[in-house]
Write a structure and sequence with these properties.
This protein has 291 residues and is of the alpha+beta class. It has helices at residues 4-12, 96-102, 128-133, 148-158, 160-163, 167-170, 202-215, 224-249, 255-266; strands at 32-42, 48-58, 63-72, 80-81, 84-85, 88-91, 103-104, 107-108, 114-117, 120-123, 179-184. InterPro entries: DUF7003.
Length: 291
Amino acid sequence: MLTEKEILENLDNSNKQGYYCSFIELGHAYSYLIDCRLNVFRGDNDRWAVAAERLGYNPRRGGILLDIYYFGNCLINLEHYNGQDTNWYSVMPVDNDSFWDTINGECLKPDAEYWMVRGQKVKLSHNKQDYFEADIELKEYEPNEISAEEVGRLVVLKHRELFRATGEELYKSIPGDLKKILVLDEWYHRDYIEVVQPKISDEHLRYTYEFNKNLASGQEYMDYESFAALFRQGEQRNNEFNQQQWQDNRPSSYETWQQIARVIVTGDLSHYKPTLEPNTHWKYWPDSGTL
C-alpha cells in the first residue's frame, strides 16, 4: 500500500535521481519567473504523479519557456540528455518568430504589436499605466524600456490559459489513465537545490593537478598540497550547503508537500488545507533570472 512517506522520499530525492533531475526551482537564476501551476495525479495500483509548470523568460535559451517538472512512481517517456534521464522538459507557447520580431536584445521593440501564442494573436502593451495597474513595476534601465519578462507578466494576466500546459503536454511523461485530482495555481514553496558533487579520490585529484599544471605550460603554478587543500575546502562548503538545504528546504520538511502526499494516498482533497501563505507569485522571487 502506498504511503505518504514513500511519496515524500521520492520528492526529497528528486535531486539525486540523476545529474539532470531537479526539484521545482521558481527562483532559477537563468529564468525570470512569470507564472506557475501544480497538477497532481492519482491512479490505480498505487500510482501517482505530479507535474509542475514553471513559465519564465530565459534570455540564454531565447524565449518564453514553459518548463514542466515531473515527479512520481510511474513516469514514462522522460527526456534524455547526455545519456541520462531528465525529469523536466520545455515547450514554447509563444511562436519563436513572433517573439523575436518584437524583442530587441531583451526588451520590447517600439513597434511591437502582438505575440502569436498557440496560434492566437495576443496584443502587447507599451502603455506604462497598464503595467502600473497590474502592479508590475518597470525596471526601465533605459527610458521607456519594457523588458520581455515584464511583457510576459502582463500578457499572462489576460491570457493565462494559453500559457498553461495542454493535456498532451502534461501527460507526455504520465500514463494517460491517471486522473488529475488537484490543481494549484498558488502554494507555499521553497526552492530545494543541491550541489552535484562527484566523489574525487586522491589519485584522481593528483591526476587533475598534473593535467592543469601541464596546461600552464611552465608558468608558475601552485604546489599540489595547496591545490588539494583548496579543492577539499570547496567540497566541504558544498557538503555544508547541501546539508542546510536538506534540513530546511526538502519537500517533506514543510506542510505543502506533506498535505499533497496525504491527498494522493487518500484521494481526499480536504487534506489540503494550508496554513502558510502562498508565495509562488513572481514578486516573491526577485532574484529569478538575474544571473
